[in-house]
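Protein in question quoted for reference:
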Amino acid sequence: MIKYKYSVSSEDPSSGLLHGKSVFVTGASGAIGEAIGAAMEAQGAIVHRTDRTSTEGVVAMDATDEAAIRAGFDVTGPITDVVHAVGQLIVGPLATTSLADFTEAMGANLTSAFLIGREAARRLEAGGSLTFVASQAGFRGGANWGVYCAMKAGVMRLAEALAQELGPRGVRVNSVCPGSVDTPMLNDACEHLAGLTGVSTADITARYRETIPMGRVATAAEVADVCVFLVSPLARYVSGTSIPVDGGEVSA
C-alpha cells in the first residue's frame, strides 16, 4: 500500500503534502489566488505566480492572451500542476447588461479558462492536475447574477470535459466552487447590488450570510485548502468533479 505523509506545518516544507510539486497559479494577486499560492508553498510546493499586472513575486501574464500564456508557461519551465484563479465579477439585470460588459467578463471568466486549460492540456504529464476556481454560482441561476452564473457554469462544464479528455493520460481536472468569501470582490458585489436595489450594503451582506447554514462567509484560506487537497496525492482518484466551498449554501 502506498502511504502519503500529510503535514499542515509550514515550518518544514520538505515534509509537506505537496513536496516535489511545481504549481502554476494564475490570478495570484487576487485574495483567493494569493491564499492559494501561500497554501501551496506552506505544503512544500514550488509556486509560479502570474496575474495581469506584475507585483512582487507575481509575473505579469494576461490570461486572455494566448501568446502571453504560451510565453508564461515557457519561461516557467516544467510544471506538475495548474490552478486557474482568474475571474471577474459581473452582477446586475440581464436587461441592462451591455455587450461590452458581457464581453469583458466573458474574457476574464470563460475565455481565460479555455486558454489556460488548453495550454495545461498540452503540457501536463501523468500525475499532474488542473484545478479551476469556478463558483457556487455555476450550480444554479439567480436574479442579478445571470451572466456570472452562466460563465461559471461554463468553466465547470469545461473542467468536466477536460477530465474525460486527459484522464487516460493520468491528468486530473476539477473545479473548486466558492460561495460567499470574505474578499474585496464580495464587498464590491454587495455595494453594486445595493445601488441597484436601494437596500443597504449591510442588509444585503446580512441576507447572504443568512442563507449559509454555517452562518458565516468563507475565508480565502478555506478555499485555498480545498485547492491544496485537489493538487495533493490525497485526491489521486478525484477528477471531473465540482466541489462547493460554501458552508452548505448550495444544498440548503
Summary: The domain at 16-179+219-238 is CATH 3.40.50.720 (Rossmann fold). The radius of gyration is 18 Å.
